[in-house]
Amino acid sequence: MSNPKTELRYNLSEDGSKYIKATFLNQVWLRWTDNNSGTTINGKPQDNTLDIGLRRTRLQLFGQLTDHVFFYTQFGMNNFNRLAQMSGNRKLQAFFHDALAEYKVFKGDDRLKLGGGLTILSGLSRFSQPSVGTIMTTDVPVFAQATVDQTDEFGRKLSVYARGQVGKLDYRVALSDPFPVQTNGQVAPEIGKRATFAKVGLNKQYQGFFIYNLLEKEPHTTPYMAGTYLGDKKILNIEGGLIYQKDATWYTPNGTDTTYADMLLWSLAAFADMPLQNNTYALSAYAGYFNTHYGNDYIRNNGIMNPATGTTDPSNFNGAGNAYPMFGTGETIYTQVGLRLPENLLGEMGTLMPYASFRHSSYSALAAPVDVWNYGINWLLDKHKAKVSLNNEIRPEFEIKPDGEPVKSSTRASTYLQFQIYF
Question: Which InterPro entries match (predicted)?
């Protein structure tokens, strides 16, 4: 009897070194949100919402065509809920996330790969280029995708790059061509005293990310980086990276003269993901420091798959629904930890993995820090292939005082249940 298929793969050579592979990912959310002050949905005030959405639906097709040539494509959509297309057209969400071609310089090893195209490959951190199907914390820490949908396409940029593994060093460097901010489908903010992405001029971005593997090497097939290996590998890494773009933002410090600011983002982190007690348990832990300089008092609110359409509260700094200050000039400490329980804990029904994460951001535009807590549990029916995750998030709410400064006024919560299929 032949062994059952465990992946959608067609081998182009007898030894399987040349192949074409397809994968499918679907993440369905059922969510309750404690909305920000004054939130409205289709013009009606609503204190809280219950919504259903597709956080991500993706198709990947990639493969090693020759000893040297690799390609990768990804097509899909994100954040599709009942309000996904307020323009009246519900069919505009799917697009190519990635389309890259890559040349492996040395046959049989990963010392140097040269590539280009539309790609997630990033210089900031592992969570700036995450394998979303393997994330431990139900959703990624989106603040690490620092220019998402401002000067990129959902984190992807047109880039040429080099990446590889030399000994214990994993590296990637890239030259990226960012998109103009006025092409992101939203009205770009007018220039003011706080920095925003400039609508005049457009310089290249320089990126570099480096990992030192103290134990096993991480896989290097695609540019994406795993969230957790669930004990299948023994990983201990020290990581660091940066993104630089000259004159990326602009502002008017005195209300009249235009000043340009360079964007410099960098991070240092440690990552551990390994089995414990002869693989009875598995630990996943990350701790990182992020220094994000976008320009004078840059601040950007964002709400993941926002369930709301507007606000009636002029003192509400966060915006509608679940938005809060997610990106800004300043410093961030982010940490997460989880423990995969024994694999046979629930018999044929898999096992559990509880986790928690904490983010503390000190932004120059805000008098109080942005503290965000997430905690939850994964029910691993078949590792990452089929899992159910329950997450609760606590986020801050800021209000604008009469002097125009935003101050922290309260906290809000969101609870969501995710069912993931990843094959």
Answer: Porin_dom_sf
Domain that holds residue 364: 22-422
Does position 296 have pLDDT exceeding 50, yes or no? yes
Statement: residue 94 has pLDDT above 70: yes
**Nearest Cα residue to 351 out of 269, 263, 228, 260:** 228
Distances from the Cα of 117 to the Cα of 26, 73, 101, angstroms: 25, 10, 7
In a domain, 218, yes or no: yes
CATH number at residue 186: 2.40.160.10
Query: How many angstroms separate the CA atoms of 97 and 371, rounded?
Result: 30
3-state secondary structure of 402: coil
Give the three-class secondary structure for 381. Answer: strand
| C-alpha 115: how far from chain center | 22
Residue 292 has pLDDT above 50, yes or no: yes
Tell me the C-alpha distance between 131 and 121, whole Å. 11
Q: Which residue is associated with the tokens 């309000």?
A: 83
DSSP 289-342: EEEEE-STT-EEEE-TT----EE--TTBSS-STT-EEEEESEEEEEEEEEEEPP
Residue 407 lies in a domain: yes
Asked whether residue 6 is domain-assigned, the answer is no
Which residue has tokens 């030259």?
175
Q: How many domains does the chain have?
A: 1
Q: What are phi and psi of 11, to 5 degrees?
A: -80, 135
Rounded Cα distance between 204 and 326, Å, is: 24
13 found inside a domain: no
pLDDT(339) > 90:
yes
Name residue 406's beta-bridge partners: 400
Contacts of 356 (CB under 8 A, 6+ apart): 336, 337, 338, 373, 374, 375, 376
